[in-house]
Amino acid sequence: MASPAFIGVFPGQGSQHVGMAKDLFENFKIVQETFEEASDAISVRLKKLCFEGPDSELNLTENTQPALLTASVAAFRVARREIDFKPSAVAGHSLGEYSALAATGAIDFARAVRWVRARGQAMQQAVPVGEGSMAAILNADEKSIQALCQMATDQNLTTSETTSGKKAVCEPVNFNSPGQIVIAGTADAVAAAVSLVKTEPSFKGIKAIPLTVSAPFHSSLMKPARDAMEDTFKSDDAIKGLHEIVTPYFPNRTARLTTEKNLVFKLLSEQVDHAVLWQQSVEAILENFSGEVSFVEFGPGKVLQGLVKRIAQPKNRTVGILGLSDTAGLEPLKAAFLKGKSA
After folding, report:
1. Interacting residues of 54 by C-beta distance below 8 A, sequence separation 6+
2. 208 in Cβ contact with 133 (< 8 Å)
């Protein structure tokens, strides 16, 4: 009988909150060292930002991304140091993909902190504030989402361009779980999609929730940010920060088990202006690991834990769901992991 598989998963932007990782910081030296290393890398006092805020500063994309990366990697390092935790594979939601790769040593942590700060800046600069938006669409399948986005785009093709010259765009960008898909694009087109959900009979039963975000993340409008990341990854310094993949991972871009070092920068670049295939990634994990599987979310919040439950349920798979965001999460993880190793 095969040993249980433990899959490390890492949250993306939106899971951050003031106070995240503070409990771990106060109890584990490895967390203090991780925060110090990250702060030195970008000359930002991440301890103050994460523990004191304010929210307005923490939620700036260029701050959120390095802060969340640091909190997530710090949590993983606690598990590795305290219980010798070694995952069978890892995956991360959007920004969390950097956390997954940095935590397992596929990319340098300090360099990754610099990269995601630059990524956040580039993503915000790609579309001026107010010109792009996002919305969560609930209770819709992929076919309905595609029809909704097409109708919303068509309605706005004849309207004036945005001040930055961008035509109407509305696209599915986050396939989070069955019945939860996020769309993004130009503000008018996304607003049209939200309105269509309320008024178009063919979309009866579907709900739309506008999201409070500063840019249409993962849409094709993010192409300038993708270009910026491609330039970043061409540098000699970036290449030095790329290592062999010891722990396989499931990228957002393909949702396929990946161990090829030379694909990492390509996948991280393309991830910026392509959809996050989270549901597909979890389904691929369940296909690759047919026995007992436990998912462990490293970092603040429980967003991914909830999504994994919803994805596994239609597959009739019972999976373990664990999280490590504070000291209280360590003992349940330790018990499950040690039990799995002895199986």
Report:
1. 18
2. no
User: What does the pLDDT look like over 169-211, one tens digit per residue?
Assistant: 999 999 999 999 999 999 999 999 999 999 999 999 999 999 9
Residue ranges of the domains in the chain?
5-125+223-342, 128-214
Active-site residue list? 94, 218
Domain topology for 128-214? Alpha-Beta Plaits (3.30.70)
Range in 23-37, 86-100, 160-174 with the lowest mean pLDDT: 160-174
Which residues face 92 on adjacent strands? 10
The H-assigned helical ranges of the chain are: 22-27, 29-42, 46-52, 55-58, 61-83, 96-103, 109-126, 142-156, 187-199, 223-233, 236-240, 264-271, 278-288, 303-312, 330-342
Q: How confident is the model at residue 343 (pLDDT cuts 50, 70, 90)?
A: low
Quick count: other Cβ atoms within 10 Å of Cβ 128?
14
Q: For residue 296, how many other CB atoms are within 10 A of its CB?
A: 27
Rounded CA separation 280/46 (Å): 33
| Residues 102-149: tens digit of each pLDDT | 999 999 999 999 999 999 999 999 998 889 999 999 999 999 999 999
Under DSSP, is residue 40 helix (H, G, I), strand (E, B) or coil? helix
Question: Does residue 67 surpass a pLDDT of 60?
Answer: yes
Count of Cβ atoms closer than 10 Å to residue 328 Cβ? 10
Q: Over 50: is that where the pLDDT of 163 sits?
A: no
User: What is the CATH T-level fold of the domain 5-125+223-342, as seen in this structure?
Assistant: Malonyl-Coenzyme A Acyl Carrier Protein; domain 2 (3.40.366)
